[in-house]
């Protein structure tokens, strides 16, 4: 199961897993692109709103009806919103606080949505027979961000959500260790995803130049490569890996 699988990091991961013979279920709200990816890789698409428990349950039921209980879950669904904790409105010099609704929405998608998929998928994985030689039953990869450690101005909601994802990894790994289910997070830096498509080329180049090496935006395929490596390496468990070309985000 790959959430956010219709584009960006999720689509690249769905393709990479399928290339290795994995039967992939693509979860996304974007039905047109999600169904296209599923057709391309010979998988199945399920419409899924990760903030809705009934929607998650229905999507998992559809995926399991097609492919059986999943052994791999990759959480890529997420949103980014830029808003400072408080700001002065230039026109009036009034002070405006960050609204709670926007903060809550980012937390709901990025953190609670990830939690919901982890909880429900791991419960399903517990029903599986362990695999030799280590007794592994499944692996879960979630998407945090370098913003969890280097949050910039205007990223309070995003950084909080992605910090929460990273912080969940160790306790969840400990909860699931006895049942042979591993959990890891990837913390991408600046990656060329649809979020960057709306920026002018000059702006993209400027951002790419801030990456020490390689001095470019990351490719979704590089995220997918690490996700596959985590699946393959049974000693990777309970942590979060920065995938960022050594960047440390400046305050703005």
Give short descriptive properties of this protein.
about 250 residues, alpha/beta, two-stranded antiparallel sheet
**Rounded average pLDDT:** 96
Q: Major sheet: order of its strands?
A: 3-2-1-4-7-8-9
Total strand count, please? 9
* Total count of helical runs of at least 4 residues: 9
Portion in beta strands: 15-25%
Kindly name the structural category.
alpha/beta
Radius of gyration: 18 Å
Q: Major beta sheet, specifics?
A: 7 strands, parallel
C-alpha end-to-end distance = 35 Å
Oligomer: single chain
Query: Could you state the order of secondary-structure elements as H and E?
Result: EHEHEHEEEHEHHEHHHE
The general outline is globular
**Any low-confidence stretches, pLDDT <50, length ≥5?**
none
Report the helical percentage: 40-55%
Can you offer a commentary on this structure?
- There is one protein chain.
- The protein is of the alpha/beta class.
- The protein has nine helices and nine strands.
- The chain has helices at residues 8-19, 31-41, 53-67, 100-125, 147-150, 156-176, 194-197, 201-208, 220-232; strands spanning 2-3, 25-28, 44-47, 72-75, 86-88, 95-97, 138-143, 181-188, 240-243.
- The strands form two sheets. The protein has a seven-stranded parallel β-sheet, with helices on both faces.
- α1 packs parallel to α2, α1 (8-19) crosses α9 (220-232) and α4 (100-125) packs parallel to α6.
- The protein is globular, with a radius of gyration of 18 Å.
- The two termini are 35 Å apart.
């Amino acid at each position: 199961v790959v959430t956010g699988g219709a584009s960006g990091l999720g689509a690249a991961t769905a393709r990479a897993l399928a290339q290795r013979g994995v039967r992939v279920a693509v979860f996304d709200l974007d039905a047109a692109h999600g169904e296209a990816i599923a057709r391309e890789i010979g998988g199945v698409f399920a419409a899924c709103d990760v903030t809705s428990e009934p929607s998650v349950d229905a999507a998992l039921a559809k995926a399991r009806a097609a492919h059986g209980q999943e052994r791999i879950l990759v959480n890529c669904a997420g949103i980014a919103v830029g808003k400072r904790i408080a700001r002065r409105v230039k026109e009036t010099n009034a002070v405006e606080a960050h609204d709670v609704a926007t903060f809550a929405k980012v937390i709901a998608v990025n953190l609670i949505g990830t939690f919901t998929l982890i909880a429900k998928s791991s419960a399903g994985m517990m029903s599986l027979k362990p695999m030799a030689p280590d007794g592994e039953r499944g692996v879960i990869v979630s998407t945090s961000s370098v913003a969890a450690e280097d949050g910039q101005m205007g990223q309070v909601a995003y950084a909080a959500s992605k910090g929460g994802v990273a912080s969940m990894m160790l306790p969840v790994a400990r909860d699931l260790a006895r049942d042979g289910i591993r959990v890891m997070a990837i913390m991408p830096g600046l990656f060329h995803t649809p979020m960057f498509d709306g920026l002018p080329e000059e702006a993209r180049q400027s951002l790419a130049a801030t990456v020490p090496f390689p001095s470019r935006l990351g490719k979704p395929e590089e995220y997918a490569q690490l996700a596959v490596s985590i699946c393959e390496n049974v000693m990777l468990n309970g942590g979060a890996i920065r995938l960022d070309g050594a960047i440390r985000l400046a305050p703005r």
